[in-house]
Write a structure and sequence with these properties.
alpha+beta, 8-stranded mixed β-sheet, 8 helices, about 40% helix
C-alpha cells in the first residue's frame, strides 16, 4: 500500500509531466538553458516578452545565432509592446526603474534593425487591446519547449517566476501558453525591421 503512494508523490503524471523546471525568478534560470533552447530550435522561435531586450545581454552573439537560425529555415517571431503605447507608459510608472520599458523595447528594435530584413524574421507590436495581457505574461517558445513568465504586480520581468515547459501531448500547459502567444500574435501590428 505504501509503495504506490510514494511513487505517485514522486513521479510526474498527466500535465505535470510538461513542467521541466520552475524558477522563483526569471533571472535564476541559467543563461545556458536559454542558449540551449535557442540553439536546438529548428522550426520555430517565438519570443513574446514585452521587451525581449535581455536576449542580447544574456546570450553571446545572439544576433549571429538569429541569422544562423533564419538561414536554416527556422521561423523567428518577436512580439513586443508598443514603446509609445499607454500600457508601456503605465508600466514605466509602476516599475519606476532607470532602464524604462520603452527604452528596453527600443533596444530590441535597434538590434533587430541591425539585422535588417531577414527571411523568416518577423516582429509585431501587440495590439493596444491586448497590451495588458501581453505585459502580464511572457511566453518564449522554442519548437516544443517554452519558458513562461507570469509577471507579478510591481516587479520587472527578471524578478518574476519562470516555468520551463516541454510539450507532452494535446491540451497541456505548453499548448495553452502557446495558444495565448498565437492569439496575441494574430492581432499584432507588423513592425518594419529596415530595408
Amino acid at each position: 500500500m505504501l509503495w504506490p503512494s510514494v511513487v505517485k508523490e514522486r513521479i510526474k503524471t498527466g500535465t505535470d509531466r510538461e513542467i521541466v523546471h520552475s524558477y522563483p525568478y526569471r533571472s535564476a534560470c541559467p543563461s545556458t538553458v536559454w542558449a540551449d533552447l535557442v540553439q536546438s530550435a529548428q522550426c520555430e522561435i517565438t519570443l513574446c516578452g514585452f521587451t525581449n531586450y535581455f536576449f542580447w545581454t544574456q546570450l553571446p552573439n545572439f544576433s549571429g545565432l538569429l541569422k544562423e537560425k533564419a538561414a536554416a529555415g527556422c521561423r523567428i517571431r518577436f512580439l513586443l509592446g508598443d514603446p509609445d503605447g499607454e500600457v508601456t507608459r503605465q508600466r514605466e510608472v509602476i516599475e519606476d526603474v532607470p532602464l524604462t520599458v520603452s527604452t528596453r523595447i527600443r533596444m530590441t528594435l535597434g538590434e533587430l534593425g541591425k539585422l535588417g530584413p531577414l527571411e523568416g524574421l518577423e516582429a509585431r507590436y501587440s495590439a493596444a487591446e491586448d497590451s495588458v495581457n501581453h505585459v502580464s505574461l511572457s511566453v518564449f517558445r522554442f519548437d516544443s519547449e517554452a519558458l513562461v513568465t507570469p509577471h507579478l504586480a510591481r516587479l520587472v520581468g527578471h524578478d518574476s517566476p519562470l516555468l520551463h515547459l516541454r510539450r507532452q501531448g494535446d491540451g497541456g500547459m505548453f499548448d495553452r501558453f502557446a495558444e495565448h502567444a498565437e492569439e496575441l500574435w494574430s492581432r499584432g501590428v507588423p513592425v518594419s525591421l529596415g530595408s
